[in-house]
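We examine the record.

___
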Amino acid sequence: MISSRVLSIALLSLVNIGCSGDNDTTPTQDSGSIAALVQNSENTQTNKFNINIEFDNDAISAAPKSLSLSIGEVGDFTLNAQSGYRVTDIKGCDASFDKNTQKIQVIGGTKVCTIYVTSKTNSILLPITSSVEGYGRFISLPKRAEQGSDFNIVTEPHTDQVLDSIQGCGVKKTSGVWSVKNAQSPCHITAKFKSQFDTPKAFSHTIRLPIVVHVLENENFTIDDIQIETQIELLNLHFRSSDLLETLNMLSGTARVAVEHIPYIADVGIQFYLATQQPSGETFTGINRIADQGHISTASMLGSLYHPHKYINIWVGEKPPEQSQYSITYPAGTSVAPGISLDYRAVADYSSRTYDPKLNKTLPHQLGHFLGLVGHIADGPKGSHHTLPCDGVIKQSPSCINQDLLFNYMRHNTIADEDKRMFSLSQAQVMRNWVTSGPLKPLYDNNIDQQ
């Protein structure tokens, strides 16, 4: 930088050079050269650069029309839009735009630059209404959309449901995405969800029950949401499609259920879904994660219990080494929190959605107990479900009683998982009665609108 004092001395020297001596031929500095030197010096001191602004439409203007800023200096443009137009974007010069004040702020840099402003006409906002049939919800759907705009639609069915269709507003599915293109008028969109399974042949209706999974986390294990979600999907296959799974088992080369027992394989007609609402009414994934530094205990279960008349509670956590192979069912009416406790290693990993008969079947076994099946299939107490006729007829069957079913889900824990493949018709009837008219009737009644 050239200080004003140095500049004055320099100018004085030039003047002295021009006026000294008597020799008329001595060169002198003219006034134009002096002015140029002063201007040069000022430019060097201020180091300003122009910032320009350009528009894609004459309906937008700015004041001022340009700025000249030094490095680090802050400047503003105030935009003005004619009626019916609005600014949509600005780019260039690292500028920022405040929509509320309609000002562009920019900081001076080391070179000339230009801010580009784009705009569009104000669009009409169209109201978009919606409704749901079946059990699911919209995750992404605008309540209003600009006329001529596009938008995507995202839905979430309950764990035991699938999206059947979306209708209205000219919606179409392209490459797996439901979307509306070029919206032109107010419209209504309906999402239809349906069960993954048909109505059971042996029973009048399907029973649906909500599950909340409490994950008692500690530093020794992790279990992600997808494993829990798909474990519930697999559970529904066991309760609703064991006859299909038996066919898959045959294809995998494992031992077959005896031909004479195949007619007794039940579609229980009970299916489960991860709860979608917390007790407070807030939307919920059905998975309740709790930081817990110890093993599953009565205290940790009671401390996290959701009302057992509204939810089936399942706790997943770490059990002591001597109990890691055991899962425990606590029926309704016991002093312990009613529900099921599982060691995290007992949760089946069906995240690939590829069925394998060796997948863990601890949960269907324990839910059988929770829904009223007493004891194991071969060694339950006298008069329990294992002595009932396989076909559900309330009389001694000469051809089959439940304890004859070597591939039953209620066999002892020491039996390999691939050898547990079915509930019988009579077991299904016991479980349905337990829910609709037995100890779990309050749970059923509180979820009657989900049936």
Observations:
- The first helix runs from residue 4 to 19.
- Helices lie at 4-19, 31-46, 225-240, 242-252, 298-304, 362-370, 425-436, 441-446.
